[in-house]
Amino acid sequence: MAALSRHVLPPGAFTLHCPPGLRHQSSWLGEAMIALGALMVIGSVPAVPVLLVWLWRRARRAEPDARPRMWAWFAAVLIGYLVVAYVPVRQRPWLVQTPWFRWFLEYFSVRMVYRDGKPLQPGQYFFLMMPHGLYPWSGACATVSKLVDIFFKMRMASAPVLFRLPIIRHLLGWIGSIPADKASMSAALKNGECVGLYPGGIAETVRTESASERLLLKSRRGFVHLAFQHGTPIVPVYVFGQSIVWNQLKMPRWIETLSRWLRVTLFIPYGRFGT
Q1: pTM of the full predicted structure?
Q2: Where are the beta strands (DSSP E) in the chain?
């Protein structure tokens, strides 16, 4: 098998390449900033609704003289939440080149392996990222810092529901993500842009296990038709380690059906240090 591999694959096909400009090991400052940023971004999803419920209950139970002030706090947080949720977000190419996003790549020790031993030639491609994992960190990595030159400013397709969540939608907008629907991806391909997609979607997310790798591809054909329609070559990208970044509590099988019906993944994750 080793002799056959040397004839089939070119030299350097299994060489790990560190993206230019990145340290081979993350610094303590980078790790601390990434942990704090992830806590703020991901924690904001449940934190703001919980805060609104708490303020609402406090306002209802407050003394008559303090009630107007509590209702004013509730209204201010609610209005701020709605403004952040619906104000349009623009792509910020300069922002993804700041140190925080470089620390992001160094934290995950991003390395590249090319089948032909060298990067793709510049052009338009349809990148298929797999597996999805509980959270598609690789898609975020591929659209920031030094990787924008490797993936040619790829527009990462993300679940439409994410574009309704404050903070999350801002990050997606800044890195140039688009909704994972046919119209949005077709428009990007028509404009000559590269597109990235996780074909496994919600079903693959729910079935993620840290002890094994699971892909859902046989029933996924829509991206093939889209790529043929625009004459865009498909490039498969396998991400090693994505399935073990987070674990999830075992859920009943009907959760997958409910998640696909709601078009949002339902899971309870836990990761480093039990977070």
Answers
A1: 0.80
A2: 126-130, 155-158, 178-179, 195-197, 234-238, 247-248, 269-270
